[in-house]
Design a protein that fits this description.
The chain has 493 residues and is of the alpha/beta class. Helices cover 39% and strands 15% of the residues. Strand 2, helix 4 and strand 3 form a beta-alpha-beta unit. It is elongated and about 80 Å long.
Length: 493
């Protein structure tokens, strides 16, 4: 699924197992800590060469050990360094105790730290493994640093961020830069953790990557490495029907725009033929705006049955502007029974809020051919128990939802998670804030539908669609609208 190593993600617990496996294989674990701390010091000096003082905050575990190494390295360059420790450093054990014993700087208790103008903070208190609320002394220093507006370089992950979920555990530093090791963690990409990390640098401290692969959790950063091999290839023999037929259902006369956005996006994403299936009352409104996209009146279940007689009409988008009710449910059921592939979005999702299992059962007995695109509220309508469980991360929720629905799930947001029924999952990181605009979700549904029409499997189509959506937004610029976003969809650049 993933080529190379830059897009790998490991949870903190899995990374801990990798560290243990490295030590068990005979690798000097303190040597790894030395490399980590030296990498932090190098990043700090590179980013803040003019700092008046480096303030290193060390915690009671191995993250603190990295901090002691960094403090020593900074001191050896002649830089002014102040060191503050949380907890009694005399109780440190193992590599962290060794790192502290080799650090020539006399530390002071964390609650005595008073940041001053010109300071650069090195946060080595907790790192990625925190799973409880930060103690008051840490919350206090977070507040003092924040109020002083001082730059922070975090070791592994800003203290206060849960590395598995990205949740703020009471309080958390807002880092300018984060140095992590071997792979990023989910908390570097999931919100709100991502907003606390600043720029993220992943440093290879020398653990053989085979040990990382052995603990791999089938979780990656979304990008072409994950789906490019599944993308369709065009050649001289290509024609429009070979590139697939996508149909987008329109709403009534006053709700046609969303379907046209999705249809235009599907055409731009490469579908050979795109049709808007419109209720009769909306045919005139749609006809006035459509050019390359075709138009067909599909009003009733009987109309849909006639439309499905053409086997080339294989992929559908239902939901944008369609309306919530029995008609949506009936159309989805008919498409499922006919073996069609479907992107279910917006109103189409909400239509099944009272009986989600009816939707899941309709698509249960096949290779995944359903893509669900819920935002937070829509997700809670289909999966209320998952949405309400605070122990689950966004990745956990998306994976369990995908397995339950036998669907590729795009759990939307600035940190969209894409999950497959078999447990594969991706976290997307390229969506700019400008995508928070009316109609952008309709465009995403159309892109995914256009890729499905070309034969891309459901999970890969969902993942590629999300990434291409963000990529188009980046190139469209901050003033994008849904209409202009479509013009920047380009998987060939």
């Amino acid at each position: 699924m993933a080529r190379g190593h830059c897009n790998w993600l490991l949870t903190p617990s899995a990374m801990g197992e990798v560290d243990a496996a490295a030590a068990a294989s005979g690798i000097d674990s303190y040597g790894l800590m030395e490399k980590a701390g030296q990498a932090v010091a190098a990043a700090v000096l590179r980013l803040f060469p003019g700092a008046e003082r480096f303030v290193v905050l060390c915690g009671p575990g191995n993250n603190g050990g990295d901090g002691y190494v960094a403090a020593r390295a900074l001191h050896e360059t002649g830089a002014p360094v102040a060191l503050f420790h949380f907890g009694d450093p005399a109780t440190l054990k193992g590599d962290a105790a060794t790192a502290r014993s080799r650090c020539p700087i006399e530390g002071a208790p964390l609650d005595t730290c008073r940041p001053a103008p010109g300071d650069v903070i090195v946060d080595a208190i907790f790192g990625a493994g925190l799973a409880r609320a930060v103690p008051p002394a840490v919350a206090d220093i977070v507040q003092r640093v924040d109020e002083a507006g001082l730059p922070v370089v975090a070791v592994d992950l800003p203290s206060g961020i849960d590395g598995r979920t990205g949740v703020v555990m009471g309080a958390a530093f807002r880092a300018r830069h984060t140095v992590t090791f071997m792979t990023r963690k989910p908390g570097h990409l999931l919100l709100p953790g991502r907003m606390h990390c600043g720029s993220v640098e992943t440093f290879d401290i020398g653990i053989p990557f085979r040990l990382v692969e052995a603990k791999g959790e089938r979780l990656f950063v979304n990008g072409p490495e994950a789906w490019d091999a599944a993308m369709p290839q065009t050649d001289a023999a290509a024609h429009k029907f070979r590139r697939g037929h996508l149909t987008v259902f329109s709403g009534g006369a006053a709700a046609t725009g969303a379907a046209r956005l999705a249809a235009a996006a599907g055409l731009r994403a490469g579908a050979g033929v795109v049709t808007v299936a419109s209720p009769k009352e909306a045919v005139a409104a749609n006809a006035a705006h459509l050019t390359a996209v075709m138009l067909k009146a599909v009003e009733t279940e009987s109309d849909l049955a006639d439309y499905l007689h053409d086997e080339r009409r294989s992929v559908f988008v239902l939901g944008p502007g369609f309306g919530v009710g029995a008609k949506a449910r009936a159309f989805v059921t008919a498409l499922a029974a006919a073996g069609r592939r479907l992107v279910l979005d917006a109103d189409g999702i909400t239509a099944f809020a009272e009986d989600p299992q009816a939707l899941f059962s309709a698509f249960a007995d096949s290779v995944p051919r359903l893509v669900l695109t819920p935002h937070e509220g829509e997700f809670a309508r289909l999966f209320p128990d998952l949405a309400a469980d605070p122990a689950l991360s966004k990745v956990d929720r998306a994976r369990q939802a995908a397995a339950r629905a036998n669907a590729a799930v795009i759990y939307k947001g600035a940190d969209s998670v894409i999950a497959a029924p078999d447990g594969r999952a991706l976290i997307n990181g390229n969506a700019p804030p400008s995508l928070a605009t009316a109609g952008s979700g309709d465009v995403l549904a159309g892109i995914v539908g256009g890729l499905l029409a070309q034969g891309v499997p459901a999970f890969e189509a969902a993942a590629a669609g999300v990434w291409l959506h963000g990529d188009a937004a980046q190139r469209a610029g901050a003033g994008l609208t849904a209409e202009t976003l479509i013009n920047h969809i380009d998987r060939w650049h």
